Amino acid sequence: MTKEVRSQRDSPLRKRREELDLTQRDIALALGKTDQTISNWETGVYEPKMTPREVKALCHLLKWTLDDMPDEFGSSAITS
């Protein structure tokens, strides 16, 4: 299993998105981002840069409180 595949599977953002039957595009459209940006968040390639309005929209979409939101969206415990 490659590092990227493992990272995507372990991503708290991906896990929650799939629990709610949402696509990366659904999140991207709600936040005014691209699908690739959401993918990069899930793989840990980039850390999210969001305005307070975007954070609120993401919390609403994923049914998370601010406290529920993970510190990292990609998996940080990946080993090769």
Automatic annotation (TrEMBL):
<protein>
    <submittedName>
        <fullName>XRE family transcriptional regulator</fullName>
    </submittedName>
</protein>
<feature type="domain" description="HTH cro/C1-type">
    <location>
        <begin position="13"/>
        <end position="69"/>
    </location>
</feature>
<dbReference type="InterPro" id="IPR001387">
    <property type="entry name" value="Cro/C1-type_HTH"/>
</dbReference>
<dbReference type="Pfam" id="PF01381">
    <property type="entry name" value="HTH_3"/>
</dbReference>
<dbReference type="InterPro" id="IPR010982">
    <property type="entry name" value="Lambda_DNA-bd_dom_sf"/>
</dbReference>
<dbReference type="GO" id="GO:0003677">
    <property type="term" value="F:DNA binding"/>
</dbReference>
